């Protein structure tokens, strides 16, 4: 077994709760995306291209880390569902920010308050739509008398 896989398994044993692992991996994913953005800016890439590059690479990195570390499923066929979940989370996040702004909350606080809402929505969407456990359809439940 390779050292990366061993490290992932040790992390999963240390933190068995998937939501807590999701929070840790979210921090790692954020750091990765910011590092890519900063590197792009450092080498002279315009901010709008740097944002695109960091988002595309960030989603790919996030897919790998979230799938393997949090949900223990690295199946590459799930990428489309993963991306669709993040589109939904973006829409939810934007709607929450908009609603808070309509209620008189300033733009900064609206974004701060919406972030944990988006994070929780992200976790449950990924858990139920992308990484859901398949049920065994061959198992027959006994009928109740």
Could you list some keywords that capture this structure?
single chain; 145 residues; mainly alpha; 5 helices
Tell me what the structure shows.
- This protein is mostly helical.
- Helix content is 75%, strand content 0%.
- α2 packs antiparallel against α3 and α4 runs antiparallel to α5.
- The longest helix is centred in the first third of the chain and has 25 residues.
- It is globular, with a radius of gyration of 19 Å.
- 17% of the residues are buried.
Task: Describe the structure concisely.
By secondary structure, the protein is mostly helical. The protein contains five helices and no strands. It has helices at 3-14, 18-42, 47-70, 79-102, 107-130.
- Number of helices in the DSSP assignment: 5
- CA radius of gyration is 19 Å
User: Structural class given helices, strands, pairing?
Assistant: mainly alpha
Mean pLDDT: 89
Q: What fraction of the residues are assigned to beta strands by DSSP?
A: under 5%
- Tell me about the biggest sheet? none
Strand segment count:
0
Helix content: over 70%
| Basic shape | globular
Annotate the secondary structure layout.
Layout: H1 3-14, H2 18-42, H3 47-70, H4 79-102, H5 107-130
Helix pairs in contact: 2-3, 4-5
